Amino acid sequence: MEQAEIGLIGLGVMGSNLALNIAEKGNKIAVFNRTPEATRKFYAEAGELAGQIIPCETLEEFVAAIRPPRPIIIMIKAGDPVDQQMKLLEPYLSSGDIMIDAGNANFRDTIRRFDTLKDSPLTFIGMGVSGGEEGARHGPSIMVGGTEDSWKRVEKVLTSISAKFNGEPCVAWLGNDGAGHFVKTIHNGIEYADMQMIAEIYGILRDGLKLSAPEISKVFGRWNEGRLNSYLIEITEKVLAANDPISGKPMVDVILDAAGQKGTGKWSVIEAQNLGVAATGIEAAVAGRVLSSQKEERVAAEKIFGLPQTVAMPGTDGLSFLDDLENALLAAKIAAYAQGFAVMAAASKEYGWNLPMPTIAKIWRAGCIIRSQFLDEITSAFTKDPDVANLIVTPAFAQLVQETDGALRRVVSTAVMSGLPVPALASALSYFDTYRRGRGTANLIQAQRDFFGAHGFDRVDGVDKHHGPWGSGLNA
Ligand code: NDP
């Protein structure tokens, strides 16, 4: 029997769709799943692609079905299962074989796995895949980390299955060891911020302007034709238009307001903090999900405090406030993306990855959850100035911020006066107001630190006296 050119372990939601995508692009693929029933079901449902698939029920059979040197994608639950699976697989592998972890790994695990195999005849790639079920099946965005040599050996097959933006593949080698999984983590962090900001705008439309779900759907539909055009806005329009088959009510109105999370948002915040980068939009989004999950506490608190009176919304009878909401979302998005890219720039220095910012923006333009028109503009900005300190100060984005920050200010202040929570939108505004102010207020913090801890400070006049006259003797 003709051997497969690639193997895949893990026929869950992502793995089965990725395997069908690989088969459809003309690549012969061997597949294996811990529970063999899933392999049988997958093969039985593969239809005309079955001819490209070799279903295997043991690891021995699976490895033998792939032509060496073997690229093997592992698409299973992240964490310990990946280590367990690699341990079970290794005895069957031979020199030159590549294990590719395509799950949502923590990049620190990826570096550890990469280092463990570094001096062995085997190779490890950590690969971030975005786009959910649909992306996996028809073209995801793929972020690869590992040696350049190992990338070259999988480049053809990964290019064939990736999403395309105007014909350009949304896959790239981003750097050594954990680079791919780090970039995927920050992608998810930005996705958290994007979703939180959309939800906050939805809250203003629902609780401030008192619009119904179908009415709000139309607003998002209109915005999707403008500068906010993106997958997340598109699905928001669709979600808000859907009805619950059981109650007949809008589907969103019968969904519990408690959001889940699997960890990549939290990792983004932790890594931003470790690197000393302010990622306030992602922080607000993760905190927003945490508070959302405390449903019982919130219901109890509402009984104590009640809800504040909504102030009269400006432009409720016209379009002006809706325009403000659209522009506010755009302004806030810019801050969140600028923060995400700043985290990646810092990580690139810290881990020696040399992350290519224009390429990252490029491969996020299609296939992934945050795909948008906006990312094409980010691609252009970083292509013109790949080493810029912050996306906000690139000429194109500086102009966009200048056009939209007034709207963000009006929206945040209106929401605040109405008691409508907008933590991510407000964080974006404060981030911008802090970033654009040459003389901040940390002089006071430095004075306090010097007062109680003799930490010293720098002076604005360059005079060589670095402690204040606090009268303690020690500091005077
Ligand atoms: P599913 O829950 O659909 O499938 C999980 C898979 O992992 C199954 O094949 C399961 O095998 C296997 N598995 C679980 N534990 C072990 C173990 N100890 N040893 C071997 N195999 C094991 O998950 P998804 O397909 O959604 O996710 C797979 C990976 O992709 C995860 O890392 C996820 O974070 C990531 N991801 C998911 C996305 C999504 O939208 N769902 C998007 C991008 C990445 P069995 O059938 O035997 O239980």
From TrEMBL:
Molecular-function annotations in GO: phosphogluconate dehydrogenase (decarboxylating) activity
EC number(s) stated in the UniProt entry for this protein: 1.1.1.44
SUPFAM superfamilies cross-referenced by the UniProt entry: 6-phosphogluconate dehydrogenase C-terminal domain-like (SSF48179), NAD(P)-binding Rossmann-fold domains (SSF51735)
Catalytically driven reaction(s): 6-phospho-D-gluconate + NADP(+) = D-ribulose 5-phosphate + CO2 + NADPH
UniProt keyword annotations, A-Z: Gluconate utilization, NADP, Oxidoreductase, Pentose shunt
Family matches, as InterPro entries: 6-PGluconate_DH-like_C_sf, 6PGD_dom2, 6PGDH_C, 6PGDH_Gnd/GntZ, 6PGDH_NADP-bd, 6PGdom_BS, NAD(P)-bd_dom_sf, Pgluconate_DH
Pathway linked to the protein: Carbohydrate degradation; pentose phosphate pathway; D-ribulose 5-phosphate from D-glucose 6-phosphate (oxidative stage): step 3/3
SMART domains in the record: 6PGD
Domain called 6-phosphogluconate dehydrogenase C-terminal: residue spans: 180-471
Pfam families the record matches: 6PGD, NAD_binding_2
Enzyme class, spelled out: oxidoreductase
Superkingdom classification of source: Bacteria
Free-text function comment from the UniProt entry: Catalyzes the oxidative decarboxylation of 6-phosphogluconate to ribulose 5-phosphate and CO(2), with concomitant reduction of NADP to NADPH.
Assembly: Homodimer.
PANTHER family recorded: 6-PHOSPHOGLUCONATE DEHYDROGENASE
The family this protein is said to belong to: Belongs to the 6-phosphogluconate dehydrogenase family.
Name listed for the protein in its UniProt record: 6-phosphogluconate dehydrogenase, decarboxylating
Species of the source: Rhizobium helianthi
Lineage start: Bacteria, Pseudomonadati, Pseudomonadota, Alphaproteobacteria, Hyphomicrobiales
Gene behind this protein: gndA
